[in-house]
Amino acid sequence: MHSPAVVWHSSLLSYDFGAGHPFNPVRLDLAVRLARELGVLDGVSLLVPQEAEERDLVRAHTASYVDAVKRAPEVGFDVGHGLGTGDTPVFANMHSAASLVVGSTLLAARQLAEGRAKRAVNIAGGLHHAMHDHASGFCVYNDCSVAISWLLDNGFDRIAYIDTDVHHGDGVQAAFYDDPRVLTISLHQHPMTLFPGTGFPGDVGGSGAEGRAVNVALPPRTPDSGWLRAFHATVPGLLEEFRPQVLLTQCGVDSHDEDPLAELALTVDGHRRIYQELRSLAEQYADGMWLAVGGGGYQLVRVVPRSWTHLMATVLDRDIDPHTPVPPIWMASVGEAAPNTDLPVTMGDGASVEFTPWDGVSEEPVDTAIRETRKAVYPLYGLDPNDPRD
Fold first, then answer.
1. Residue 1 has pLDDT above 70, yes or no
2. 3-class SS string, 73-116
3. Which CATH number is 348's domain given?
4. Are 161 and 144 in contact (CB under 8 A)?
5. Span 243-273, pLDDT tens digits
6. Can you tell me the distance from the alpha carbon of 363 to that of 345, in angstroms, rounded to the nearest whole number?
7. 311-321 core/surface letters (b: 16 or more CB in 10 A; e: else)
8. Is 129 a catalytic residue?
9. Residue 265: is it exposed, middle or buried by C-beta count within 10 angstroms (0-12/13-18/19+)?
């Protein structure tokens, strides 16, 4: 078996909504530069993506929507389909840039399907909000949904999608809500407090796919310990029952305490622990098959580069100690670009990632979310929602 695959090329920085927009591609550039400075990518041949073809885009999107994206730069603000809004403004070469993001996740998926690797990572992916006929939440095309559809046509019939972004993975859930072959699990800030306002525990899947949609709606200010408590109380038991052949994980880092667009309270140390848990679950339940993509994350300098460096390191089995100093060369280059930013000095936030497992009786703030999700989903798998052993 070949080494884990890493998809990256600077052309992916072309997915750019312009100055002042929070979805700034500089976060990708800084993450890759940091990973290189730390030796994470030493000896790794980065895979260069190509734009996805329209035949793959229409796996997740209507042909009329794809045409609207192509025409958007010429048409301007009246194109419709969620394009030209404050969240998703039109920019030159939008179709090409968005197609390249899809192509990068498809390239990662092909490595798994063709037996070239058991793990692959693409930090430029994770555009989970895009719907079949409109853009949403900074997402033009949904690379996750396209990749899942492609995998279903290329040797897989049980795919688990786990979304750790602070926002609900609504586009992917919608794409496979009625498909029993795909299990979508999203742990996100409660939809009554954050965009997109979806992802309630009672949303469990359509007819014939009951239990295939799982939503853990976390209260604002949930810290690492609460997030990990909820994760372990819901996810492993469902994976054990579903037995996926591959794990596709959206690893947005806007759950961080410093993120300006949301209100969870995780740390870089917590993100690192999450990636390690996902790797372990892939080994335990999916024969090691793991495709990891990026997602949200809007503390562009202090958080995203460190967190996604940890993601790449975890996929490559080159785990970085959170006490590792941030390389001075990286800090100097970032300091020139962001002179007023208080830069982190280590690869962690100095936080503990210990947590108390859910016991079915305690009343921590996150326990309501755990109970609601388990009550809605666990009986559909023949599991006892009140028994922490299930």
1. no
2. HHHCCCCECCECCCCCCCCCCHHHHHHHHHHHHHHHHHHHHCCC
3. 3.40.800.20
4. yes
5. 999 999 999 999 999 999 999 999 999 999 9
6. 36
7. bbbbbbebebe
8. yes
9. buried
d(CA 270, CA 256): 9
Whether the link from the prior residue into 196 is cis, omega within 30° of 0, is yes
DSSP 345: S
Residue 156: which domain range? 5-381
Q: Is residue 351 part of a domain?
A: yes
Rounded to 5 degrees, what are φ and ψ at 168? -60, 135
Q: How far apart are CA 142 and CA 146, in angstroms?
A: 6
Q: Which of 312, 199, 309, 299 is nearest to 257 (CA)?
A: 299
Does the residue 388 lie in any domain?
no
Structure tokens at 188: 């996100």
* pLDDT in the model for residue 129: 98
Residue 63 placed within a domain = yes
Number of domain units in the chain: 1
Structure tokens at 362: 């305690």
- pLDDT average, residue stretch 308-333: 97
pTM: predicted TM-score of the whole model, two decimal places: 0.97
Q: What is the DSSP letter of 209?
A: -
Structure tokens at 92: 């030159």
Tell me which of 61, 95, 129, 271 is the catalytic residue: 129
Gyration radius of the chain's alpha carbons: 20
CB 128 within 8 A of CB 105: no
Find the Cα–Cα–Cα–Cα dihedral 143, 29, 40, 275, rounded to 10°. -40
Does residue 223 sit within a domain?
yes
